[in-house]
Amino acid sequence: xxxxxxxxxxxxxxxxxxxxxxxxxxxxxxxxxxxxxxxxxxxxxxxxxxxxxxxxxxxxxxxxxxxxxxxxxxxxxxxxxxxxxxxxxxxxxxxxxxxxxxxxxxxxxxxxxxxxxxxxxxxxxxxxxxxxxxxxxxxxxxxxxxxxxxxxxxxxxxxxxxxxxxxxxxxxxxxxxxxxxxxxxxxxxxxxxxxxxxxxxxxxxxxxxxxxxxxxxxxxxxxxxxxxxxxxxxxxxxxxxxxxxxxxxxxxxxxxxxxxxxxxxxxxxxxxxxxxxxxxxxxxxxxxxxxxxxxxxxxxxxxxxxxxxxxxxxxxxxxxxxxxxxxxxxxxxxxxxxxxxxxxxxxxxxxxxxxxxxxxxxxxxxxxxxxxxxxxxxxxxxxxxxxxxxxxxxxxxxxxxxxxxxxxxxxxxxxxxxxxxxxxxxxxxxxxxxxxxxx
Length: 439
What we know:
Blueprint: E1 2-5, E2 10-13, E3 21-26, H1 37-55, E4 59-64, H2 71-80, H3 84-101, H4 117-129, E5 133-136, E6 139-142, E7 166-167, E8 179-185, E9 193-197, E10 200-206, H5 208-220, E11 224-230, H6 234-249, E12 254-260, E13 263-265, E14 268-269, H7 280-285, H8 290-298, E15 306-308, H9 310-327, H10 337-348, H11 353-363, H12 366-376, H13 381-406, H14 410-422, E16 425-430, E17 433-438
Parallel strand pairs: 3-4, 3-11, 7-8, 11-12, 13-15
Antiparallel strand pairs: 1-2, 5-6, 6-8, 8-10, 9-10, 13-14, 16-17
Helix pairs in contact: 2-3, 4-5, 5-6, 8-9, 10-11, 13-14
């Protein structure tokens, strides 16, 4: 298996740190509103990776954090006139419903920032002890000049950065870097905890970047196999995660960084800040099956930009229906081992889902679709269950018809024949008994 590692900018052969077990961390939502389709594309990609590793026989531990305190959640709760906890919990529940609609398997853990304050504070204390953190005006910052490998993920050069420049915002551009905030000084009306460090008592809350490092290491240890997220998180979020984590432990934080590209709408990045976004409810309101959106995402490689249109979604829904129709027919056609191998090879090559789909369409065999749906997650197993259910129902009707015929109740028996015909089967009466033929 090879995956494109953002840090090395090349495909690398994957072997887990611990044999048979793979540790995965993906940046989850900041629950200040519903996730838009671009956000959901990232979680579909993470789910396909997790599913494929399971398909290959690996045990996975997948952690997806929930950011339930930051600038946006605090502002959102104030605007809604409710407590931060009530505001974020409601958005979290809606997010988890979206994942269920999209057939995204549950992660093993969904840690929340507010429930891991101790771990966050302990990490900040370690950074103080090692000389990477300092206090200024009641807040705590990470000194990027002390971490010599700063910029290794985003290939950013520290030269020219003003010494001691500080950034309080959670998100900022490469053009304005600086020492990023680990602990934010309390503001009136904001939730706060007390951080006791170096004889100081600092009332405040965690910065965004430190939350992920603390939660990732709590559940997965100092070094992760995979860290996933959108390309917009490479800088500063993931760059800062590396700096604070490796400064604290002295060990590599992540072995493989995998980033999915943007979802576009009218050629522009879909984003709440731009106001050009759709959420899953918009698709459902228009009568679309959420799994059509999942299929649409699988048609584009995760590292390629994907342009969303209603026409492309309609086409994806039509194709998915055709696949399901294939499942309503009997499929006795055998599949060569080489076809199966080609599909697996596509997934092994940096999760090349478009190539895997193309091979599956050429093979045109539902049992093959069913086998690889363990990776694709299109809910095709329900078609098989439905087919079995229909068969059992027809068998019962057939037995009832035979009883009626024996009793000479031919009119009632003919009504059952008509019912079976509507279910897609013809009955041929032979000397050996009735025979079903798929119409």
